[in-house]
Amino acid sequence: MAQMGRPGLSVSQKEDMWRRWKQGESHSDIGRALGKKAVSIHGSIRIHGGIAPLPRKRSSWALRWQEREEISRGIAAGCSLRAIARSFGRATSTVSREIARNGGPRKYRDDDTMQISHETIYRTLYIQARGALKKELMAHLRTRRMMRRSKNSTTRGQPRGQIIDAISISERPAEVEDRAIPGHWEGI
Fold first, then answer.
1. Interatomic CA distance for residues 14 and 20, integer angstroms
2. For the whole model, what pTM was predicted?
3. I need a surface site. Which of 37, 89, 90, 135 has the fewest CB within 10 A?
């Protein structure tokens, strides 16, 4: 499928972005290093709530969702554990443990009382919440931060909210006081 809109970051750029973010660099510094605008970097980081997504990697021993579905269908069809395990080439004990771990044959499929980790809740609040609902949800977080940041992150040395090479109003020339030139007029 063709990508719509502006091209995003490559895999290596994303890795570099997250490494720099974890080291405490600002969006502007990261953007300059990657040749992107700070707002693009902010958007990429904000989507994940300031937390680098973990690379997805499953153990070869872990059951895949297709195998779990086969177990569920086998239970529904009344098949024995051996027959279910044989259908996708796993040991009977693996299938038995999977069923036992999930509450037995009667509770194996479509359990609404599944548990969820605190990290998933935080990510959901940071990533999916929008508008007025966001303020309501963010009020329940311990730190009430809009974005999670690295412990190494700091704004020290960043000229935020400052005008670089600013001249104080007390240092303005005397000719400004007489307001003879239209550019020297002040708002009334």
1. 10
2. 0.37
3. 89
Tokens encoding 37 = 């605008």
Cβ pair 71, 108 in contact under 8 A: yes
pLDDT means over runs of 10, the chain (188 residues): 60 91 91 91 88 80 87 91 92 92 82 65 65 65 64 73 77 76 65
CA geometry: angle 108, 115, 106, nearest 5 deg: 15
User: Any idea which residue has 């303005």 for tokens?
Assistant: 172
Contact criterion met (CB below 8 Å) for 82 and 74: no
What does the block give as tokens for 187? Answer: 């708002």
Place of tokens 């002040």: 186
User: Tokens in use for 155?
Assistant: 């704004």
Burial class (CB in 10 A: 0-12, 13-18, 19+), 30: buried
Is the residue at 35 inside a domain? Answer: yes
Q: How far apart are CA 18 and CA 50, in angstroms?
A: 9
Residue 160 and residue 27 in contact, taking contact as beta carbons nearer than 8 Å? no
User: How far, in Å, CA of 48 to CA of 51, rounded?
Assistant: 6
Query: 33 in a domain, yes or no?
Result: yes
Predicted pLDDT at 7? 64
